[in-house]
Amino acid sequence: MTSPIVVVTGANGLVGSHVVAALAERGATVRAVVRRPGAAPDLPGVEEHVGDFGDPDFAASVVAGADVVVTTVYPMGDDDRDSQRRVALDGTLVLATAAVGAGVPLLVHVSTAAVYDRSPAAGDVSEDSALVGDDAGDYAVIKRDVDAALDRLGGVTRVLVRPPAILGTGGTSVWNAVVPAAIRDGESARHAQPDKTFAWVHATDLAALVADVVTGAIPASTDGSSGPVVGGCTPVNVAGEPATQRDYVGSVTRALGVDPVWDDGDAWTGQILADRARGWGWVPKVSLADALAELEDGLHG
Fold first, then answer.
1. Cα–Cα distance between 42 and 34 in angstroms, integer?
2. What is the pTM of this model?
3. Which CATH number goes with the domain that contains 227?
4. pLDDT value at position 232?
């Protein structure tokens, strides 16, 4: 499959826009799902579809005849847990169910490494590691529940892509814009445990893995170590080189001209293991130094 028809939700978000760009570079036809007219990336092969993917009628129409569905949406700015679940869980399942009904063979869901237990004693984290409990925050628990619901879904090959913090420029970027704004505006956001792991991946490297799965550059397999399992649900971690909060918070505070506040205490110092993704042939291209330089340049600007 080299020129598929691909539905991408959240096509104007940080992850979605990078995925759309990577797919356009590979010659795919992209049905970019957005909520506002004119919000989709203006790229060759990209068709804007305006609507709510949680609406069964809209979902059925947008997936009809598609080869792949890619879901990237989570309402990060919504503090209401019920609203988060309605969009991220219920809406995603409406779209996924429509995809099954339409005979779409592949569903790629951008999840998060936040679904894993990363308490101080957790150690390194692989796809088989323990997940968070119900006492974790809304984001981690809802994302965990979406993954579980997709795991139970039959009739389609499913891939759960699990990135940690996603670096990359953009107004909606949590780690390049939202968190730095909080650090700029208040001392309380400048606190961090310096040796705590800052697991990260750049948005372009994340999008490259998604696009390679979508276009068949990473083909489906009967063995999860070499590719997504045909007819199954395969989680895959994507993470860049090791980093700490000293690296990230230090870069942000340096760029903003404020002082970090380094706290003592136990912290998770393990790594998000991306051995499975590397076994699929994925190699991240953006180094930590380049990602942090981009971050600082954006904050200076």
1. 13
2. 0.96
3. 3.40.50.720
4. 97
